Amino acid sequence: MSETVAASSARGGTAGTPGAGRWWILAALSLVQLILVLDSTVMNVALPSTQANLGFTDADRQWVITAYALAFGGLLLVGGRLSDTLGRKRMLLVAMGGFVGASLLGGLASGFVMLVVARALQGVFGALLAPATLSLLATTFTESSARGKAFGVFGAVSSSGSVLGLLVGGALTEYLDWRWCLLVNVALGVIIVAAAAVLLPADERGQARTHSDPLGVFASVFGVFAVVYGFSAAEHSSWTSTVTVGSIALGVVLLALFVFVETRVAHPVLPMGVVLDRNRGGAYLMVAIAGIGMFGVFLFLTYHLQQVLGFTPLATGVAFVPMIGLLVIGSIVAGGVLLPRMGPRVIVITGLLLAASGTALFTGLTSDSGYAGGILPGLIITGAGFGLVFGPAMNLATHGVAPAQSGAASAMVNAGQQLGAAVGTALLNTIAVSGAAGYLAGQPRTPDLATQATIHGNRVAFWVTAGVFTAGAILCGLIIRPGRDLGTTTNDNTPAPAA
């Protein structure tokens, strides 16, 4: 870490920002992260109302969520590279302006296509915004004790923001209109731009220097898109169709090409030294797995609460509040207290297994299950598990990374969460819809039978989600180092060792 601080200081960076000013910077950056993560779920609770207003199908509903996550995750590495070369403050201000414009477009959408395009544009500007935010945090807080507290708070905001989006979305949908779930970003964006312009230090001189890696950009963006589209296509075309198999296969090939290219170009979009450290690689895997399951849980529980139990949008958002509390507490305690004393491996394994256990409880839901006895226990356990994952992950993802590579490292942790959300939403929605269709096959369609079919499809998806969390606990346990070592330090030119 001392190498990182020294390198940053030599360049006039923000490393070691002194005094109370850095805590105001933390507040501003946390607000940026909040609006980004909040927008990944704020439309979930509003989806039934949006669907009724714009008239799209159950099969298409996932694209309101996936369009944002797909564009966000697919372009994050590009955003990270631009943040490192064009300047983090400059990128944050420009990208926030674009994000506000896209939100305004979505709030005024007159049809499904316009809404999805606006959500995709939100994702594009979010991909430029997120790496600048996290890399500014990483270079502002370099002392071990302050860094742990800062990343604990930031991790709590990042993880709880997804659930807070459900609460905000519910309130806005019920008392105003679903469109305000997007229009609220206009007001928040103005506050963020004003605060960032005043609080953030100027970008380093000479930083506006770009290097081209067009093949890497192409392979990463279209590889991600092909994989997610393949999972989505399975809902319409089956898992064995040419479209499904071909899209997934093409995506895997393009992502393999991306890795190949990045190890051979002079100025890669993603320097391999950033990801080859075991703990950093484990952090990216953690947030991807958490993203897969978390957004699936949000989607299916939202529809269960509103369509099966008859909750209003606001009541649905309030129903997720216990998860918010456990996420915040778990993330702050894990990142600021437990991580320095226990190291990351035990904390993360425990968190993922808690998430698996809580999700497994949702498989027992029926049309007669109440909130207190049927849903609340799972929310509490799952929320505690997510809190233990996100706090350490945010810290590990940027620990020991040289300032010139902090944008790429920051992009990877955000990319993991957003791509996990995109893949998880597409995959689990496909599994749930397929399960419901199989339940209805050959039977007369009645309202009661349709409800039972929906519950059955969700139950299958919850079991798959619990399995993903369990597999993630095993994989992260094998990858992350034992003990309290947080990882190796990189420099601008030399990759970190793999182990």
UniProtKB/TrEMBL annotation:
Domain Major facilitator superfamily (MFS) profile: 25-484
A GO cellular-component term linked to this record: plasma membrane
Any single Pfam family the record assigns to this protein: MFS_1
GO MF annotation, one: transmembrane transporter activity
Membrane topology: Multi-pass membrane protein
Cell membrane as UniProt keyword: yes
Alphabetically ordered keywords of this record: Cell membrane, Membrane, Transmembrane, Transmembrane helix, Transport
Keyword Disulfide bond assigned: no
Compartment(s): Cell membrane
Listed transmembrane segments: 23-43, 63-80, 92-117, 123-141, 153-176, 182-202, 214-232, 238-261, 282-305, 317-339, 346-365, 371-398, 419-440, 460-480
Name used for this protein in its record: MFS transporter
Organism, scientific name: Amycolatopsis vastitatis
